[in-house]
Amino acid sequence: MKPEHRRELVLDAAVRAFARGGYAGTSTDAVAKEAAVSQPYVVRIFGTKLDLFLEVFHRVMERIGNAFADELASGTFDPDNEEDWTRLGATYTELLVDRDLLMVMMHGMIASGEPRIGAASRHCMAKVFTILSSTGCTDDQARDFIARGMLLNVMLAMEAPDHLDDVEGLAPLTLCAFGESLPALTA
User: Fold this and answer.
1) Which residues, in sequence order, are CB contacts of 19 under 8 Å at separation 6+?
2) Does position 187 have pLDDT exceeding 70, yes or no?
3) Cα–chain-centroid distance for residue 156?
4) Does the pTM exceed 0.85?
5) Which of 13, 14, 114, 158 has the maximal Cβ count within 10 Å?
6) Nearest one of 151, 17, 23, 55 to 96, comparing CA atoms
7) b/e map 102-120, b = 16+ CB within 10 Å
8) pLDDT tens across 96-130, in order?
9) SS3 per residue for the chain
10) Nearest one of 118, 99, 97, 100 to 108, comparing CA atoms
């Protein structure tokens, strides 16, 4: 196997491992086991656990930013047209089907007490805001869009779509938050 292909396999395994255990709860040994390679091999390729996590986190956040940028480049966007915001929101919801992506993003933001992860989280969030702002929307519109996305993240992280009937009020909140996208997330 070529080194670059094996590196990609380890990165994919690291996404799965960090999605389950977060930064603090995942060792390079856990990543190695997930990738079916040795722990020294993981360290040789990526250096420290922190360096590996940052690469995984940047990869996830880049995927999100690129999805927004690609959608915005595919046509016109009127920040005063609710249908355009709905279309952009659907782009994000399509990404959320990948629970590992969502969980790595959330774990990265939670682990922001680690200075390098905090800097990466701030940088990535600012980049998303900049992409949204490029539409000519107001700062409030960009903030509201991001805030709604964060609500979706939290609800998916706590598995709300899978437990609609467990707690009074959860179903209407979940339906309101996800709208027509909910069935795609529970399939």
Assistant:
1) 99, 100, 101, 102, 103, 104, 107
2) no
3) 11
4) yes
5) 14
6) 151
7) bbbbbbbbebeebeebeeb
8) 889 999 999 999 999 999 999 999 999 999 999 99
9) CCHHHHHHHHHHHHHHHHHHHCCCCCCHHHHHHHHCCCHHHHHHHHCCHHHHHHHHHHHHHHHHHHHHHHHHHCCCCCCCCHHHHHHHHHHHHHHHCCHHHHHHHHHHHHCCCCHHHHHHHHHHHHHHHHHHHCCCCCHHHHHHHHHHHHHHHHHHHCCHHHCCCCCCCHHHHHHHHHHHHHHHHHC
10) 118
Task: List Cα–Cα distances, 176 to 142, 145, 179, in angstroms.
Answer: 20, 15, 5
For the record, the structure tokens of 175 come out as: 């339906």
CB 32 within 8 A of CB 42: yes
Amino acid identity, position 20: R
